[in-house]
Design goal:
Blueprint lengths: L1 H16 L6 E6 L5 E5 L1 E8 L2 E6 L7 E6 L13 E7 L6 E8 L9 E6 L1
Antiparallel strand pairs: 1-2, 1-8, 3-4, 4-7, 5-8, 6-7
């Protein structure tokens, strides 16, 4: 019985030995597109109102993307207007995450946000 348990444990450990550890990247961006804090983020661009481009050094196309609005106390001049954000990896560049902010009338709007990329 002990031999079976040891063999089963060895098989489990051998299967996980080659697995890579999860990596997490992040960015905190104000509503003007300035990168305030980051882990792995290289730059942020705000080419038009409400559309941010956050560039990361590694390819993030196979990662999970989460975005949320930043708190009003974190940045001076934060707009507390109700709205929402969405994020996705760019189809043109696997290093870029596109973040879009919209108000309740669906008009593009600038919002401060936290971006989490888990790979």
């Amino acid at each position: 019985m002990r031999l079976r348990i040891c063999l089963a444990l060895a098989a489990v450990l051998a299967g996980t030995a080659g697995a890579q550890a999860a990596v997490t990247y992040g960015a905190v961006v104000n509503k003007f597109g300035a990168l305030r804090r980051n882990t792995g983020a290289v730059s942020v661009a705000l080419p038009v109102i409400g559309e941010y481009q956050v560039t990361f050094a590694p390819d993030v196309s196979a990662c999970t993307i989460v975005v949320t609005r930043a708190s009003g106390n974190e940045f001076k001049g934060v707009d507390n207007k109700p709205g929402f954000l969405s994020a996705a990896v760019s189809v043109d560049d696997p290093h870029v995450v596109l973040v879009e902010g919209r108000d309740l009338r669906r008009a593009l709007h600038n919002y401060a946000f936290h971006l989490l990329v888990a790979c």
